[in-house]
Amino acid sequence: MLNDPLANALSIILNAERIGKKECTIKPSSKIIEKVLEIMKDHHFVGDFEKIESRQGTSLKLNLISNINKCGVIKPRFAVKQDNYEKFEKRFLPAKDFGIIIVSTSQGIMVQKESKEKKIGGKLIAFIY
Questions:
Q1: Which stretch of DSSP H or E encloses residue 16?
Q2: How far is CA 7 from CA 19, 46, 106, 107, 116, in A?
Q3: If 0-12 CB within 10 Å is exposed, 13-18 middle and 19+ buried, where does residue 100 land?
Q4: Distance between CA 42 and CA 89 in Å, rounded?
Q5: Contact in structure between 76 and 124 (CB atoms under 8 Å)
Q6: Which residues contact 89 (CB under 8 A, 6 or more apart)?
Q7: What is the pLDDT of residues 17-69, one digit of tens each?
Q8: What is the CATH architecture of 74-128?
């Protein structure tokens, strides 16, 4: 039984990257995992992915491009205000303007830079660099 599908998906991606694979399969799939992968694709951490429907459920086939040094979920899901992002950037990212933190806000899932520009807070979900 899986307790955190997003954490399992990010660990599958990180393990496949470290081994040197060019693609991996993420199962089970969810809307949050798809949105996080879409953000990772927009920031050039992963390649394209496709959704595969089967009798056992949906899975995602992801192309890797070897741009990830580390990725993971942030547990507990810290609530962050619009002016407190820098504290968490120092905690989870290795350097300034290196990597992204994915945030769940009232206006959807986005990167911390975008939520800073829009001046909205939210809950921290994951980090990638």
A1: helix 5-19
A2: 18, 16, 22, 23, 25
A3: buried
A4: 20
A5: no
A6: 96, 101, 112
A7: 999 999 999 999 999 999 999 999 999 999 999 999 999 889 999 999 999 99
A8: 2-Layer Sandwich (3.30)
pLDDT score for 1: 55
Q: In what order do the strands lie in the sheet with 23-26?
A: 23-26, 57-64, 46-54
Residue 119 tokens read as 């001046």
The architecture CATH gives domain 5-64: 2-Layer Sandwich (3.30)
**Angle, CA 40 vertex, CA 107 and CA 60 arms, to 5°:** 100
Identity at 22, one-letter amino acid code: K
Residue 119: other Cβ atoms inside 10 A: 8
pLDDT band at 79 (very low <50, low <70, confident <90, very high): very high
**In terms of C-beta density within 10 A (0-12 exposed, 13-18 middle, 19 or more buried), how is residue 4 classed?**
exposed
pLDDT over threshold 60, residue 11: yes
